[in-house]
Every structure is written in structure tokens, then in C-alpha cells.
């Protein structure tokens, strides 16, 4: 009889005259270990889905309350437009407020699980629309990041180009050039002086 151990699991094999029983035992043990691993994976996925569901539930309730508040504001605008005799824009605002109320009620009343199921169902029914929306969001995010990085880059150069800093604070600590300071606090390097000569 011999034992092979690997990280806390032990496989025991016995020498018998029948070679099939040993392999059957090993197969059974492998199946058991695989089943345990699958059960653990299912448990972890269920736990993660539960946490996501709780977060969606909490956030959707908050969003529903905000949307309901916005619907109330839109209704006030519709009432004001009616008092001014502008019925067409008032009716449009009232329709928008009704739709917002429905969305707000759905978000406040639906559980996180229901919202996740509805989103999954919609994605299954309209995969191209969901893919296009993901592509549009990705493109918008990349444009935003590109624009914001350009502004950071430009603002970094403006600090040194406006003359508000003396040369010593605007140079790298690894700059080996020597500077002579003038009465105004700006320096010129010896290399600059040699180029002028």
C-alpha cells in the first residue's frame, strides 16, 4: 500500500491482483474532488452574485428616489407652463414626468435579483443593441480620458512657461548644467553663453 499526498489531499492505492479496482478507486476519488471543487465554485459565485444583487438593490432604490424627485420637479414645470398658456410643452413635460415616475417606481420596488434578471433578459433579446451601447460607452470613455490627459499635459507646461518659476526649480535634479543667476533671479547656462558667442 502506498500514499501520494499533494497539498492536503491524499490518494491511497492498494496493490491487488485486479488492476481495475485501483483505477476505479482513483477515478472515484478524482470525481469526488472535482465535485467538491464545483460545489465550492458554485458557492463562491452565488455569494458574489448575492453581494452584487445587494449593491444593485441599494443603488437602484437611491436612483429611484432621485428619479421620483426629478419627476415631481418636471410636473411643477408642466403646471407652470400650463399657467402660462403653453399646453403643448406642458403635455410633453407631463409625459416625461409620467415615464420618470414609472422608472422610479420600478427601481424603488424591484429587488436587485429582479433587476439583474431583467438586464440579462434584455441583453439576450437585443445583443447587438447591448454591444453597440458598450462600444459607444467605451468610445466616450476613451475620448474623455484622452481629453483630460491633454489638459493635464498642457497645464503642466503652462506652469513652467509663464515665467513664475526660476530656472533652478524648473530643472531636473539630474541636470548637470551650471547656471549663473542674474539680478532678476533667472539663470543662463554656460552652454547658452557659448552659443551666443
Describe the structure.
It is flat, with a radius of gyration of 35 Å. α1 (19-83) packs antiparallel against α2 (87-109) and α3 (112-125) packs across α4. Strands 1-2 form a two-stranded antiparallel sheet. The protein contains six helices and four strands; from the N terminus they run ββαααααββα. The chain has 197 residues and is mostly helical. Mean pLDDT is 76; it is low at 13-17.
Structure in a nutshell:
With 197 residues, the chain is mainly α. It is built from 6 helices and 4 strands.
Molecular shape: flat
Q: Major sheet: order of its strands?
A: 1-2
Order of helices and strands: EEHHHHHEEH
Radius of gyration: 35 Å
Can you count the beta strands? 4
What's the number of helices? 6
Low-pLDDT runs: 13-17
Distance between the termini: 93 Å
Question: Helix content range of the residues, please?
Answer: over 70%
What percent of residues are in strands? Answer: 5-15%
Average pLDDT across residues? Answer: 76
The main β sheet shows up as: 2 strands, antiparallel
- Helices and strands: which structural class? mainly alpha
